[in-house]
Amino acid sequence: MKYSRLTKEQFEELHQEFINFLATQSITASEWETIKTNTPEVAEQELDVFSDLVWEGVLNQAKYVEHISPQQMHLFHLKEDVMHVIAVQLKNGIDITTKEGFNWLRENLMDDQVEFLQAKKEYSEDKNKDKFTLIQQGGVITKGDLFKYLDKLIN
User: Fold this and answer.
1) What's the predicted TM-score (pTM) here?
2) Backbone φ and ψ of 89, nearest 5°
3) Rounded distance, CA 49 to CA 35, Å?
4) For the chain, where are the alpha helices, taking DSSP H only?
5) Is the distance from CB of 105 to CB of 89 less than 8 angstroms?
6) What contacts 137, CB < 8 A, 6 or more positions away?
7) pLDDT tens across 56-70, in order?
8) d(CA 154, CA 151)
9) How many Å apart are CA 60 and CA 44, to the nearest integer?
């Protein structure tokens, strides 16, 4: 397995897609029940293959990832050839994961207590694995509104 298995909730959300996935392998509902009962290791492999397919699709589409912690924010633009990151660091101890802290940051972006850094990083041989690592570390796929806003502000 290249990524991680989808959660039970994710499988429930993708129930129809999983049925279609099984159908592409000519596995009917009754055959699936038999596989789960008689050869659970095969069923596990099918769940893993489906999970990887879903992750590949999601990661191929991902263009922005945000990772926000109490005093830092890392905003990634996942371009074709490189990742562009804008990092925001607060030096005053304000927690930007709270509504109050985030509002303070919004109103005080140019304060001396707010530091901006930018960098570009090339992908490894496996671009989607790099994207997946960002998500595993707490990143969330977004539409990039915050990245675009700060990019215009500081560039």
Assistant:
1) 0.87
2) -125, 135
3) 15
4) 8-13, 15-24, 29-38, 40-61, 99-107, 127-136, 145-154
5) no
6) 67
7) 999 999 999 999 999
8) 6
9) 24
